[in-house]
Fold these 2 entries.
Entry 1:
Amino acid sequence: MLREIEPLSDLVNARGIVPALPDLPCNTCHFRSSNFCGALFGRSGQPMAIRGKHREIAARQNIYRAGEGNEGVLVICDGWAVRFVQLPNGKRQILSVMLPGDLVSATSMLEGQLGFSVQAVTDVRYCYFPFAEVRARIRNNPPLFDAWLRLTAAEQRDADKRLVDLGQRTAQERIAALIVHVMQRCEQRGELVDDEFPFPLSQQQIADFTGLTPVHTCRVLSALRKNAVCDVGHGFVKIMERRELQRMGALK
Amino acid sequence: MLREIEPLSDLVNARGIVPALPDLPCNTCHFRSSNFCGALFGRSGQPMAIRGKHREIAARQNIYRAGEGNEGVLVICDGWAVRFVQLPNGKRQILSVMLPGDLVSATSMLEGQLGFSVQAVTDVRYCYFPFAEVRARIRNNPPLFDAWLRLTAAEQRDADKRLVDLGQRTAQERIAALIVHVMQRCEQRGELVDDEFPFPLSQQQIADFTGLTPVHTCRVLSALRKNAVCDVGHGFVKIMERRELQRMGALK
DNA sequence: CGGTACATTGAGAAATTTCAAAGTTGGTGG
DNA sequence: CCACCAACTTTGAAATTTCTCAATGTACCG
């Protein structure tokens, strides 16, 4: 289920020559051109300035459990994951959805435990970078420091938006907002083709994100389908009435 | 309504001698022994290493409106305030409650606008510190940098907890959690006397915080009173059954 | 070809909102 | 000191949203 990706054993060979290293995942990662890994460790094209500890895990498995020791700054390299809180009574709240290239939490920069868990939605490849190294780079590089400030501010804005959703908006609005949010992220990545984009969340996961029950989530999605707004299922969303969907998802 | 506190005009007099400056609010602020101002600019006893721009404002007035230019890093010196989002349809969501000594948002360190507004709950004295100065100090002082990391992490944990509250918990649980949260903060400050502590939020504000209507909020508070758990009103909370209240507020 | 997880549907129950009216409180000016 | 005003709180009744329970249908995996 959880497989450590074997690092090249002779990163630097006996004669001190650094080989091409096509196998180190970061060296071929195309998210480095846009995400925080690139800002931290150099954009794509450059060899990666630090080695992360890479792993793979199957869909629906936990990458991290709240309260466990945390191995480093966690990045989702490939696949989708969610950050969530599991309550003793069985309920769970999904806090955020992470796409390939996303830092799991810009504020989890310190050794110690986290208050949330992380679960793979699809099969996931992920990576830990050493805390101290990441902190040192941020501290010693003013433009990087500012980039990181922007990232933490963006995460807080996102959390604030979710708070407004859960506190003030109806089931339909919350679900529409989630779909629109993911649509916009996919569009930026060029993954929106023929008004269709990947959406691997199950109805249970949509429910856990929006604070609804799976049954009610199903009814809302059915209504969206019946009204020819969009069709969610089988790992994809098909947009039929983009304008209408955006109107539903927008704050009123 | 909004009054600029006149800074001493001759901070350094003609002979270059710095006078005692008892009037600069930061020099007599007793929160500096514990809050982030102290970490940033020196603990109480020391003269304040930087001058904030201080102001006062009456209860129920806005300190900052979302989208306006932001003057600096905002600290609540005295009184209670809330951070909130106002929706066009009249609904509002309160994101967090700030007590004296609180930084308004650890992630609002950059010039530019914020996505939320800030309103005084009671009469408030507050203060802006220049962005660049604060950033420079954090960047140049490793222990301060770590302290600030802890603060941003704590703010995110708080936002995550609120998300769980709004997404997964009943009206009674949300209200109990708010009361317990404030109770614990007041207790740390030694403001809990005879099982009673200050609580200046109106029912409307409690409703905006918990994502409920004021009418339902009133019914829940009435039930708490009738069941002799606690009595909320007139600017205070009287705790009758602390254990029961904590049980209600705790995650299940 | 089963089995398991996921999705759908129906009916009734519960929590919360809405609307409307009446009571209270605290502050202000006469 | 009193009267009044405005804002806040309380109460009732009905409507709405969302949940719960339970059964059935569907898709994918080995």
Entry 2:
Amino acid sequence: MGKMKRQPTHPGIIIKEDYLRPLSITIKDMAVILGVSRKTLSKIINERGSITPDMALRLSRAFDTTADLWMNLQKNYDLWLAEHTSKEWQAVKQISSDLIHSHSNC
Amino acid sequence: MGKMKRQPTHPGIIIKEDYLRPLSITIKDMAVILGVSRKTLSKIINERGSITPDMALRLSRAFDTTADLWMNLQKNYDLWLAEHTSKEWQAVKQISSDLIHSHSNC
DNA sequence: CATATTGTAACCTCTCAGGTTACGCATGTC
DNA sequence: GACATGCGTAACCTGAGAGGTTACAATATG
């Protein structure tokens, strides 16, 4: 499977670099605009929080983007992290065609 | 924004209809293959559980698919649900260009 | 110095994933 | 009828994490 080599950019970085900084909007003000607490937004921007579906919808409204954009950023980040953090899933084996035809044993 | 009209298919339905049923594999056996409890898989298949990143990786191994496929199914489902369940996000207003140039007040 | 912004700790509530165990209900088979 | 299998699910526990409020220290900036 073609996997990502490096860790995907955290959605919070995108918010900070591509929106807040260019628009000269503070985290405090942005939190008000989004209708969330300053803590919630701060956590995301400092890569300690996740984009929830609700937050994705809020961001899509404020920045006139799709909510899907933000969901995808978070999804890619989460998947990469799980892929490189846990190992247990690697023990799962592909279902072989042998298993499919196990009925021939009857 | 082009939104989905209908509720996206829950990932659990895909597992059941496109994999377990065609392959004649029971939930019990599949849970063993995935290395999770019967309850966890049962919940997902009955649309009461979510595909976590870890589960997406397990499914990708067992069914020889990408983990991204399962993550996307869950993402679309979650987003649709949030969009049609909560309403608070609709109160968020787009950042106007007025706001951007508010410095001209100095 | 005074004010604004920010990260973050401490604390609370709620939700949810995931595990184990056990029950009742089907549907088989002998 | 007796027994086993598969299944949904309840009850229970642990741990993680979102999100809120309040408060404090640090770092600008006027």
